[in-house]
What does this fold into?
Amino acid sequence: MIAKTPAPPYYAVIFSALQTDDVEGYGEMAQAMVALAFQQPGFLGVEHARDGLGITISYWADEASIANWKANTDHQLAQKLGREKWYSAMAIRVAKVERAYGFAVDPAAPKA
Amino acid sequence: MIAKTPAPPYYAVIFSALQTDDVEGYGEMAQAMVALAFQQPGFLGVEHARDGLGITISYWADEASIANWKANTDHQLAQKLGREKWYSAMAIRVAKVERAYGFAVDPAAPKA
It folds into this structure.
């Protein structure tokens, strides 16, 4: 649920979107894209939540990994459908994670 | 819903958390903290979603603004209660937004 990322620095791609009323095909595509992301070089993890606003944060080792994922052919089709069909508004922010902290991110570990 | 942030660079604080079963006082505190964040110097906006995992991303002009907010007395009480009572797991990542794009983030603007 909470991504188990390595020590910084690494990158976060923050994807925030509002959906249209047309969700046909969206669920399948979203699932397929997450599965595909996991196979990409440099992929470190993903976090997602939605209630009205949908937020998906994917974590990547470096800028090259992000560029490679953005250029993936199947992902490009998903991006096109997102722009044209599924999303009424969308923002993507690419950010370099400089520091991180927390507790119990690994569910097997005791609460600090 | 989607934060209307200025051109990069700026900072994102990505807060990801799983809740305990004890939500007493949580809703009021969360609302109060958002209202208080809006009053802080350097605050640029906030995005939130929850379904199981809760994700709150606040955007800030610079590191000094983030440090100031973290040290805020009322916010420190909220942080303490979060650690001790409301959250079973939590991760905070501080990241520098290097580039951003999207469409229709301003609901008054036409879809690009």
In short: The longest helix of chain A spans residues 73-86.
